[in-house]
Amino acid sequence: MSHVILLAADRPLPLYDAGICRERTSADQGYTVTMEVRGFAVRPHSYYRQAVDELGLPMKPCRYELDLEAAPEDVQVLRDYLERNLSPGEQAELWSVWVPSYPEDRLTRYRGRLEDLDLETVNLLNEWNICITVER
Questions:
Q1: What is the model's pLDDT at position 9?
Q2: Which of 53, 82, 120, 124 has the most CB atoms within 10 Å of its CB?
Q3: What are the residues whose beta carbons fall under 8 Å from the beta carbon of 96, sequence distance 6 or more?
């Protein structure tokens, strides 16, 4: 299984890299590994693009991969990015997609205002086949 987080919009949005890097440490069976993890970025959708397209999910047409951690600084940068790049009343979708997905995998949808986007909401993107529609 592979997981991708996407931003989908009705029109093209600019690519963006916040330049945030952080270390993540994980321990298992007596071994500790430390990795450098990128923070918030909006990149072209290439990771599992064909597999995501084949799922036929009802996504907006302009799609981007998000590097997004459930961390307060990433949530703030996401909010700032959407504030700068969406017009009032415009919507964008945040997608959590697991590949492969199966017919019995339900799609859960949430909807809210940009000013209400918070860490708890971004944490939902770790779950299975979620779409969060955000309106500016």
A1: 98
A2: 82
A3: 3, 5, 124, 125, 126, 127, 128, 129, 130, 131
